[in-house]
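Trying the structure run again after the queue cleared.
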Amino acid sequence: MTTDAVQPLARWGVPLEPTLRTMALGQFANRFAAGALMTTSALYFTRHQGFTATEVGLALSVSAFIGLLVTVPAGHLADTRGPTRVLTWLMLGAALTAWPPAFAPTPVVLAVLLSVQAVFLSGSGAVYQGVIAQLAIGGRGVQFKAYLRAVTNTAIGLGSMVGGLALVVDEDWAYISVFFAQAVLTGFAAWNTTRLPQLPAYERVEGEPRLAVLRDRPYAVLMGLHTLFVTHFFIIEIGLVLFIAERTTAPTVLVSVTLVLNTVLVALLQVRLTRHVETVTDGSRALVLGGWLVAGGFVLIGFAEDLDVWAACALLLLGTVVHVFGEIVGSGGQWSHQMGLAPHERQGQYQGFASLSFGAARVIGPPVAAFFCAGLGRAGWIALAVAMVAISYAMGPVARWALATRADYGVTTHSG
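Done. Tokens:
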């Protein structure tokens, strides 16, 4: 274990390292705005702009797909032009494109405007992950990500509360003000990136492929397994809602309780539970533990079917808590794989590629959740639990394969 790794990351919740303090401030502003918008945008577009839910959903899907297409190119651009410089410009673009969707006259225009914004949002998100990996030296990448995830959850929770005020007012000006607030706060976050250390651009060696990550088969296979694993986020987000409503006696308000519980536990425990995950091998172990915990949560939730209301509520809440622990530990394992197997000077394109796993899971997760959780009920939850354990064990051998080939991709690493 490195000396840096045992030093505290923060005191009284405030990071001790100036770089992490700067990143946390920008992340809080950015995700606070996102939380407020997530709470209000769907209702605004349907109730106040007159679009149907299907039209809004299609516009969001199109923009999400466009966002997926830009992550790797944006990461490559950051590697070759300077990560922090590119991050600043992409976040500035996200700020400037934040408010036009509020005035979209038709669903088609809404899809176009959201897609333009998605280019900047997804691009900046991918570049941001590469910046974290390059700035968090000394084996502290997972710790940095853990702290920033706790900040993210806290900011989104508080932003959602502010967005709730707009729902109470329920006037056009209140909703539109949320869009402009996102523009202002994202603009602040863009300015804040100028305070980060300026990372040098990577000069590609003659004959080296422009997007080397696309030829890194072990890394690609491992990220494919990550995609399957992180579907658990959307299984809980969507499947739990459908399961509670259609197959249990529990009140639907319990969904809000589980969301709050998730947010609070991640904010309190993410750093603590991942502080010893430093190497790729540590990450593989963490993913196995996370897989078992996620599976345990799924089984507990599944057995809430056909019980009386109090027993159902108790099992659903207990299952949610067990799943959150798996989510926290498993996330640390994923980060160690994503960063530890990537060349330091090409973290942009590698983290951009890694971010595709979550985007792809966002596509396949909803139908999986609907079929297994709502369609099959208890048997579906048990089947998903078995799948999570199997996937978590499969990632270990693939990670070892990737470690054995790192010299071929210019990576010097240690397995722990």
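The domain at 212-406 is CATH 1.20.1250.20 (Growth Hormone; Chain: A;). Worth checking whether this holds up in the mutant runs.
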